[in-house]
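Input record (one chain):
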Amino acid sequence: MEQPVCQQFTIAGHTYGLMSFHEEGEGLVNGDTMVERALKRDANLGEEDGALILEHQDEIPQKFRGEFYLVFAAWHHPSRPQRVACLRWNGFRWCQDWYWLGSSWGGYDRLVRKVSMK
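The corresponding structure, as predicted from the sequence alone:
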């Protein structure tokens, strides 16, 4: 069963939603599980959306700062495809980092899903 989008926000006229990829009561999951669930939940965004959100980061709601890592499961590092892009708040601004799919993924990570566009 698909989980509902937990939070929505609008960036440059595009509405996005954040959703967990964890099942109820589940702890850490591996990267393969995260990617599989991103595909099933239509929350498998890539570089185009990630770069747009990063470029317009002042439009990301302040309540997300330090609360969630924004995961772009289809945005892979050009020379290290086992790493995917995440946006995280560093205390001053949102930064893009690469996270290894082989690591464990926690409850503070949120998939980004496009809800609508202008």
